[in-house]
Amino acid sequence: MTSQSIQAGTAPSSDQIRRAPKVLLHDHLDGGLRPGTVVDLARDGGYSRLPETEADKLGVWFREAADSGSLERYLETFSHTVGVMQTREALVRVARECAEDLAEDGVVYAEVRYAPEQHLDEGLSLEEVVEAVNEGFREGERTARLNGHRIRVGALLTAMRHAARSLEIAELANRHRDQGVVGFDIAGAEAGFPPTRHLDAFEYLKRENNHFTIHAGEAFGLPSIWQALQWCGADRLGHGVRIIDDIEVAADGSVKLGRLASYVRDKRIPLELCPSSNLQTGAAASYAEHPIGLLRRLHFRATVNTDNRLMSGTSMSREFEHLVDAFGYTLDDMQWFSVNAMKSAFIPFDERLAMINDVIKPGYAELKSEWLFQQTASTSGSMTAED
Ligand SMILES: [Zn+2]
Description:
Largest sheet: 8 strands, parallel
Pfam family, one: A_deaminase
CATH architecture: Alpha-Beta Barrel
CATH topology: TIM Barrel
Number of strands: 10
Family: Belongs to the metallo-dependent hydrolases superfamily. Adenosine and AMP deaminases family. Adenosine deaminase subfamily.
Structural class: alpha/beta
Bound molecules: zinc ion
GO molecular function: adenosine deaminase activity; zinc ion binding
Cofactor: Zn(2+)
CATH superfamily: Metal-dependent hydrolases
Number of helices: 18
EC number: 3.5.4.4
Distance between the termini: 25 Å
Helix content: 40-55%
CATH class: Alpha Beta
């Protein structure tokens, strides 16, 4: 084995993981606020229902509530974040900080989703919500650039599965298509609210040649994934982790894919996998047992995502640190996931290609070459005239 291949197989350091260019496709705006911002916005907006008013304690409360295994407590976390995101100023700030935090964490491209219909309590219109969030993302991109980071953020507009506004939200996404909104999504409880309830929205978007992802195959299994793909025509699967139920691994390690799993792999359907979130909702028992290990090995179009950074106390770098620990992933694996995600983004093909060739690959090449210079630094002092 050459020293280069030894280096290539080395686990990346935390610092390298953070600096590596990462791509995020599944992140909720109302799940990623800074705890201090929740406190500020609650105070400024007269929101009095927070369980804690000190930023650190509130951060812990969010993680514990999400970890509790109680759906009620988990949903309560979002009632607070959404509760303080009801004014234009609040939405601009949350979106700006979201872009700044992702950029600081080494994310170069992100699609961040939110449900406009949840931000109308204090009189904003759907249009005003979208304009405020877009303004925040643009501001965040600018401040990130001033701090030496480059990030591009697109918005996905989410409709809630239990509500009946999906067509209206799909039309909203289409109207703002070339102004910061890159696609559509539906979210909320899977059980009892199949995506087929929203067929009119999906059919509308298909007629408009627009893109959408669907939360499917998280808590609920294969039927949900099948409906999202074969009835609704989703471009990507939000989670999709239960596709594992259609994959048989025999004692000798041989693997057999069912028809649906084969379809997902053959058609390169992107899976927006969110390891930490899945551990909290019980979809996986540990990082080492998370299906992402097998799905990566089988070359599914797997991507790594954060879902709700506040509730899971996570970031893209944290997600990769867990995966490096659990599966021994290297910078090559990280690059594979990042290129997969970029290929699956909803922006135009030429822009995706430029991100891959001009940002992501050079970024990893730079990190992978660092060992060469470390070696020079550590040996140059011992050189003699004869060398
Ligand atoms: Zn989600």
